[in-house]
Amino acid sequence: MFFLFYLFVICQRLVELKIAKRNENLMKKKGAVEFGQGHYGYMVLLHIAFLLALLIEVLYLSKEVSPFWPLLISLFIGTQVMRVWAIASLGMFWNTKIIILPNADVVKKGPYRFLRHPNYLVVSLEIIIIPLLFQAYITAFIFTILNAWMLSVRIPMEEKALNNTTSDYSNYVQEKSRFTPKI
User: Fold this and answer.
1) Which of 9, 39, 64, 117 has the highest CB neighbour number within 10 Å of its CB?
2) Which residue windows are transmembrane per the record (predicted)?
């Protein structure tokens, strides 16, 4: 089961990179600008290291599927629904890089009606859920901390770029929380 699941996650990431590259090309043809190039390589490295650490911990420490796998698989499926919803809602604006079309309106549909960063929430949950599914507690712990650090760099950079470049981000920030819906 681990290898099928692992292969699924890798294939999913490769498809996302292809979508991101296509969107990058579309956006740059329309005059979009890229921000935060300095941290992007570290972010990619973090995600590759996560997948390798998961593989190593599960194989070399002979980890097995968690007894809570039905719950964890359900949570994982929920994150995938949210991921697809977020990507589809942003359309050509979705990317793994910070690429912003000047003076564009902020996307406020799909999960973006409820919170500012649903895709980062999905990634954060995955970095916990995927290792827990296979009892890879070391990977879950280390990469949850590393991801939190990466997002502490990435999100302020992205929000600053959106605020300085789009037409209405400052109003959107007033209305929406980063990771949880405002009630």
Assistant:
1) 117
2) 41-61, 68-88, 120-150
